[in-house]
Structure formats: C-alpha cells, structure tokens
Amino acid sequence: MRKRLLLASCLAALAIAGGCAVLADSGRGPSAPSHPVRLDPERPAVAEVGALKFRGALELSDNAVHGGLSGLWVSPDGGRFLAVSDTGRTVGGRLSYDGAGYLAAASDIAVHALPLDDDPAYRGRRNDSEEIARLPNGAWLVSFERNHRILRYAGGPGHPDGAPARLPTPPGLEDAPPNGGIEALTALPNGGLLAIEEGDDDGVRERPAWLGDARIASRADWHRLTYRAAPRFRPTGAAALPDGSVLVLERRVSLLGGWAARIVHVPAESLRPGAIVEGVELARLEPPLLVDNFEGIAVRPGAAGETLVYIVSDDNRSPLQRTYLAMFSLPDSALRPTVARR
After folding, report:
1. Where along the sequence do coiled-coil regions lie (predicted)?
2. How far apart (Å, rounded) are the C-alpha atoms in residues 224 and 195?
C-alpha cells in the first residue's frame, strides 16, 4: 500500500510540474492491445464503488494507442469505442465481453490523424483534442485546447473525417487558460449541446459552462451557466443520458493523494441558462482503487435496463502512468433520488 501511495504522489508531482510533457520511453516491449485489470488489485472481491457496479477494466497497450486519450465514445451496442488524444488523433477499436457481460478485451486498434482547420490567429499547438461527441445525424464534434475551439466533422468510416467546420466560440472561452478549455462536451437528446470549461487547478469550484445547439450560427446562440465541481476537482468529461440528464466526470490530482476521479449526475431540469449546476456524486475513485488521470466518459444502454458507463484515462504519454478503459453498470434506481441544486 505504501508503495502505491508513494507512486501516486510522484505521478501527481509530475502532472503538476510538467502537465502533459512527454517523458522518456519506458523500454517496455511489444504487448497485446489490452489486458484485464481489477478494480482493487489488493482485494479482488471488491466489485462496487458508490452506486456503480464494476463490470471490468482494461489496460490498453502504449504500443497500440500511443497514449494521451481524453474524450470517449462507445457505440450503442458496445462493440466499438473511439477516443481522441492530445496529439490530434483518434484511437478506436473493437470491444469484446465475457459470458457474464464483463469487459474482456480491446482489439483491432486503429489510429487516425484528425484533419485540422487553419487560422492565422492561432498560436502554438493546434492539435490538442480533448473531447468528442457524436451527433444524431452521425457527425462528430471535437473540442480543442490551447487554441480553444469546437470543430464539426462529417460522419466518416467510424471516425471524424473530411475538412472540419468551426463552430462559433462560446463567449468567454477565449479567457480560458491554455490547458484548461472545454474538456467536457456532450450532445443532449433534445438536439442541444452542453460544454464545460476545465479551468485552472486554482481551487475555484465554479467553472464556466454553456448550452447551445448543434446548428449554432453565432456566439449569441450559446447561453451561459455555471458548473460547480467538488473542492479541488475539475470537470474533464460529460455524457448525456436518454432523459436529458448528464453524467459529468471530474478529476483531482494532489501531491499527497495522487489521482482521484468522481462521477456525478446532473438532472435535466437543472440545465438552464443562468443556473448554477452542482451534480450529485454517484461514485468516487481514489487509491487503493483503480485510478489514474480519467478524462473521458461514455454511456450506453445495458441489456437489463441499466446504464453502462465507460471511462478512459489520459496517461500523459508518461511511462509512469497507464491508459485504463473501465466499465461500470449504473442501475436506474440510483438516478431517481437526485435533486437539482439551485
């Protein structure tokens, strides 16, 4: 236990000091695209965290995915996944399950470069993609940091393809810190969009957020609201549920505690212009449970009427971190008691 906590603290120190810096190669040789990992390596019987039930997790090979994964999409049947990386790539592949329906393997991993837009006003990196969302018509939205923007792509062969169109920027996004732009973006069932700024690791709980429409024609079509995270946590991903409510993934990193993540439920009725939105926590991952820099979340319906929740971690392309893809089930009953906070 002491070694794991020490490692977590070291990782946190590297994250705070170096952000997404590329570290030296770990020297690990070729490996399979994925292998299963437990929710708690020291207590194999642990199968629940908060309202979530563990349904399997994978460590994805560095050689297969090239690391740095953030946003996540999973097909409605669970057969495919797609993530974006902070190097402007999509990483996708097939998912398979065992006889009990637990996540068992990822295979046929394919990596594609995202076509980028161009603007003479851009400075520095243009390819720091952080979140991906699928629209009902098959098109994709991808948010970028550093040069803050949202690009819309036509529905390609399983991944964004073709020349992108830039959506009007939400008012105020230009003031976001370079490495703290829109990390949470999801398409709502009513045709709307929810975007949440990550912000700085400055202890401020309130983060700018916006409601809009996939057919946004001007900045005035975005409507401001405020997302309130837990103390020291920052929003890093979002996924809409069929009833219009949203699951938000939050991430914390500290020198003493290392990585932590939590998943909160935001009721649909609280998503309105001018509101201060604070979700209800469903689960929190922190040592000794499986945890890393979780930055992407996706949902799909389960066979028994439950919601299946997937999260993916960004290893910052560091040999000291890992790329995890984990799956949980969320019973419908866990969402009923949540109440919108004003």
Report:
1. none
2. 10
Kindly state whether residue 339 falls inside one of the protein's structural domains.
Answer: no
Indicate the pTM of the whole model.
Answer: 0.90
340 located within any domain: no
Digitized pLDDT (tens) for each residue of the chain, 342 residues in all = 434 444 444 555 444 444 433 322 333 334 589 999 999 999 999 999 999 999 999 999 987 788 899 999 999 999 999 999 999 999 999 999 999 999 999 999 999 999 999 998 898 999 999 999 999 999 999 999 999 999 999 987 789 999 999 999 999 999 999 999 999 999 999 999 999 999 998 989 999 999 998 788 899 999 999 999 999 999 999 999 999 999 999 999 988 889 999 999 999 999 999 999 999 999 999 999 999 999 999 999 999 999 999 999 999 988 889 999 999 999 998 887 554 444
Domain count, the chain: 1
Question: In which domain, by residue range, is 118 found?
Answer: 2-24+33-334
